[in-house]
Amino acid sequence: MRILVVGATGTIGRAVVAALSADHEIVAVSRRSTPLTVDLAVPASISDMYRAAGKVNAVVCAAGEARFAPLAQLSDDDFQFCLNNKLMGQVNLVRIGFDHVADGASFTVTSGILARSPMTGSAAISLVNAGLEGFVRAAALEAPRGIRVNVVSPPWVTETLQALKMDPSHGLPAAVVARSYVRSVTGTETGSTIEPSA
Amino acid sequence: MRILVVGATGTIGRAVVAALSADHEIVAVSRRSTPLTVDLAVPASISDMYRAAGKVNAVVCAAGEARFAPLAQLSDDDFQFCLNNKLMGQVNLVRIGFDHVADGASFTVTSGILARSPMTGSAAISLVNAGLEGFVRAAALEAPRGIRVNVVSPPWVTETLQALKMDPSHGLPAAVVARSYVRSVTGTETGSTIEPSA
Q1: Alpha-carbon span A196 to A168, nearest angstrom
Q2: Distances from the Cα of A101 to the Cαs of A24, A157, A162, B71, in angstroms?
Q3: Are A117 and B113 in contact (CB under 8 A)?
Q4: Contact A116 B135 (CB under 8 A)
Q5: Please, which residues have CB within 8 angstroms of residue B4's CB and are 6 or more apart in sequence?
Q6: Do the interacting molecules here have an ipTM over 0.90?
Q7: What pairs with residue B36 in β-bridges?
Q8: Residues of chain A with C-beta less than 8 angstroms from the C-beta of B135
Q9: Predicted pLDDT at B10
Q10: pLDDT in single tens digits along all 198 residues of chain A
Q11: Cα separation of A178 and A13, whole Å?
Q12: Residue B198 scores a pLDDT above 90
């Protein structure tokens, strides 16, 4: 397969590329640090990326910014930023992508455990993650030409917790999280929220 | 209690008012057909409404527009409309409301069964409903002064199905749905997604 990986240089993205690259051709995309770039907040940038990438059999997205802050400090702009980036960025990656991918292709986007298990500071992110899961359940019903759509909802990733100098013992290694993306890309399910586990 | 009901003239809103008005003082709000009005898509309109309403002990919202259409026909504007109205309208009703309600007050907003059980045409609504549920789970953790936040996720309502000339046999009467709002307002739970059942 030819697989477009958006967010290929991030912690999860690198692990997904590592897990898929032995058997598949990877087209790596990031915001700035790959030959092919995309700004998920700008629909025209997504269209340009697809045109430049050519036909692919799978799209994986492990990108999309959102803001973590106490609810009383989250501004209208913070919410709009989260909606434009992690939420509608990935929604548009799917909507626009329908016209660019091969028959039977798959989309795998990324939400996160805060959708279901919120914490102080996660109000905008919990909204975005849960909303994306709701979109995927619905969009899978209407995907044309045998196209599948799933979302992976990762827990805290060990490497991320280490980078943040937080206790990594509750984390799951990125290489384990990556298995859920491989399952989505190489399997047959659609409309699923896939929760990685050890 | 003094209870602000937004969407008081709709199918669910009327049933909520009927269920609560014997024991409580209702401040009825709608977009156009009550003395006190609000446009949920405009944060300043929400602030004006709270100032005009005075202190309340509970806020119920059974309002918020969203658009139902095949995914291929939902435009960028349709998604933005849904985000601005049913999603951020209710999010802002809570965020702005924190500064206006009494200690220990409750907020009860409305999502819907399409969050979990999508159908063709529901992509934007499923996103909005699920996102609102994610927000409520998180916002409840940070609500100040003992304030509670819940969301009711109604199934299809019998009266709505009848109005749409659809088979009402799978619907739940508005008066039954209203019991979930009463449970949220008069109970002690917070952060819950309440699913009405017969």
Answers
A1: 16
A2: 16, 30, 36, 17
A3: no
A4: no
A5: B27, B29, B53, B56, B58, B59, B60
A6: yes
A7: B29
A8: 123-124, 126-127, 130
A9: 96
A10: 999 999 999 999 999 999 999 999 999 999 999 999 999 999 999 999 999 999 999 999 999 999 999 999 999 999 999 999 999 999 999 999 999 999 999 999 999 999 999 999 999 999 999 999 999 999 999 999 999 999 999 999 999 999 989 999 989 999 999 999 999 999 999 999 999 998
A11: 8
A12: no
* B148-152 vs B106-110, strand pairing mode: parallel
Residue of A nearest to B134 (CA): A127
Alpha-carbon distance A124 to nearest alpha carbon in chain B (angstroms)? 7
With pLDDT > 90 as the criterion, what percentage of chain B qualifies?
Answer: 98
Structure tokens at B4: 């602000």
Sign of CA dihedral B47, B53, B59, B64: negative
A contact test, residue of B107, B111, B128, B142 with most A CBs within 10 A: B142
Residue of B nearest to A144 (CA): B72
Q: What is the 3-state secondary structure (H, E, C) of chain A?
A: CEEEEECCCCHHHHHHHHHHCCCCEEEEEECCCCCEECCCCCHHHHHHHHHHHCCCCEEEECCCCCCCCCHHHCCHHHHHHHHHHHHHHHHHHHHHHCCCCCCCCEEEEECCHHHCCCCCCCHHHHHHHHHHHHHHHHHHHHCCCCCEEEEECCCCEHHHHHHCCCCHHHCECHHHHHHHHHHHHHCCCCCCEECCCC
